[in-house]
Design brief:
- A hairpin with a 7-residue loop joins strand 6 and strand 7.
- Strands 1-3-2-4-5-6-7 form a seven-stranded mixed sheet, with helices on one face.
- Helix content is 18%, strand content 31%.
- It has 153 residues and is of the alpha/beta class.
- The longest helix has 22 residues.
- This is Staygreen protein.
- Keywords: Transit peptide.
């Protein structure tokens, strides 16, 4: 896993969302630049569809509440807009880079987690979406406390 460089992370709070509220709806769109290795996190009431590119290599996440229990769902499009035989490569890349993405989301929204520390212990459910049943999976990837970056004081 690559290590998060906070200087390469830009965070954009969209209208209706503050650094601490609301929990629901609160949706995350994480994109990146292959050229500069910068990460771009948009946090809003809806996904930042204006930031999604044809490669569909973004990480989309949202808070879900079932009964009294919160969960954090992530959606990855393994197939993207590419030929289906490249799904294996994309699946490998998502799996390799997902810890960095979760660390970027946790760090980028750190004020939110400071106000809602119980959300650090919420289960992260990853939806690997693919037309190929081999890659179409739902997995538990731990909690945000597993991805908490060490913050400099």
């Amino acid at each position: 896993m690559s290590k998060l460089n906070p200087e390469k992370l830009s965070v954009d709070f969209r209208p209706g969302v503050t650094p601490t509220e609301p929990i629901i709806p609160r949706k995350y769109t994480l994109t990146h630049s292959d050229i500069t290795a910068e990460l771009f996190l948009a946090i809003g009431l809806e996904y930042a569809y204006d930031k999604i590119n044809p490669m569909r290599d973004e990480v989309l996440g949202e808070w879900i509440k079932i009964g009294e229990k919160y969960l954090y769902y992530v959606y990855l499009y393994v197939d993207g807009q590419l030929e289906s035989d490249l799904a294996s490569i994309r699946n490998s890349i998502f799996r390799r880079e997902l810890p960095l993405a979760l660390q970027a989301i946790r760090y980028g929204d750190k004020d939110f987690f400071n106000i809602h520390p119980e959300l650090d212990k919420v289960q992260i459910i990853i939806h690997f979406n693919s037309v190929n049943p081999y890659f179409n999976k739902v997995e538990n990837w731990g909690t945000f406390s597993d991805y908490k970056a060490h913050q400099r004081k």
